[in-house]
Amino acid sequence: MTNNNPIGLFDSGIGGTSIWNEIHMLLPNESTIYLADSINAPYGEKTKEEIIHLSCKNTEFLLNQNCKMIVVACNTATTNAIKELRHKYDIPFIGIEPAIKPAATNSQTQKIGILATKGTLNSELFYKNVEKFQDIKIIEQIGFGLVELIEDGKINSSEMKDLLKKYLKPMIDQDIDYLVLGCSHYPYLIPQIKKIIPKNIQIIDSGEAVARQTKNILNEKVGFRNSDEKSTQIFYTNSDIKVLSEILKNKYKVQKKDF
C-alpha cells in the first residue's frame, strides 16, 4: 500500500519535535508537516474545552495540507482531546500518553515519579491509566513553568535548574526508580535532569513507542511513501521562528504562519 502524502504532527509548541525526531529517525523516507501552536502554549493550563478547540483547529490546518494521518505530539492534547478528534475526523490519529505501564511494570521500589502538565495529570484518560496500577505508589508533579522556559529558549538557564530541583527532590526522597516524562517538551530537559537525579533512576518518555505505532498504522491502514525523490520536512509556527529553528539545530526551514 502506497501513500505519498505527508504525516502531520502538532503540539502546543516546540516540544513535539522530540516526537517528530523519533518518527523521522525510524521513517526517514516519510515526508512530514509539523505545526507548533506556540502562541497558545502551554496547553496544560487551559480548560478541556479550550484544548479540544485548539486541537481541532490544528487538525484542520494539517488536513488542508493533505496529511494522511496525524500524530498528536502533545500529552495534554492527547489526554483531553483525542477521543473527540477521532470521532470528528475520518483520519487515523496517534496520541502520546505518559509511559506509566513500562515504569510501573519494571519498578523494583514500587514507586515511580511522573512529571507532567496540569492538563495531563487532571485528565480522565490519565486517571484511568493510573487506576490500573493500585500496588504502585505514583508520585505526580505538575511541571509549572517548564514549558514556558523551553518555549523561551531557556533550557539551560538557572531558572530551569532551580525548578527541576524543586520538582524532582521530593520524588528522589521517596525512593522512585523510574521517572516518567509526561510532556513532549520534557525530553529536552533530560541532560539537566540527569545532573539532579541518582544514576539508578531511569527516565522514560514516549517518543520511541509513538514512532513504532506510527509505522504500524502506516503499514496496516495508511500506506508508506514510495518515491525516489527526497522526503520533505516542513515546520510551521505561529510564534517567533527562532526557538523552533534552534531546537532543530537550524537544519530545516521554519515558516511563520498564522493559524
What does this structure look like?
The protein has 259 residues and is an alpha/beta fold. It is built from 11 helices and 10 strands. The protein has a 6-stranded parallel beta sheet with strand order 4-3-1-2-9-10, sandwiched between helices. Helix 1 (17-26) packs across helix 10 (207-222). It starts with 6 loop residues before the first strand and ends with a strand. The mean pLDDT is 96.
Number of helices: 11
The global form is globular
- The counted number of beta strands is 10
Mean pLDDT: 96
State the end-to-end distance: 32 Å
Give, in spatial order, the strands making up the sheet with the most strands.
4-3-1-2-9-10
For the sheet with most strands, the description reads: 6 strands, parallel
Strand content: 15-25%
Structural class: alpha/beta
Order of helices and strands: EHEHEHEHEHHEHHEHEHEHE
Q: Uncertain segments of ≥5 residues (pLDDT<50)?
A: none
**Fraction of helical residues:** 40-55%
Query: Could you tell me the radius of gyration in angstroms?
Result: 18 Å
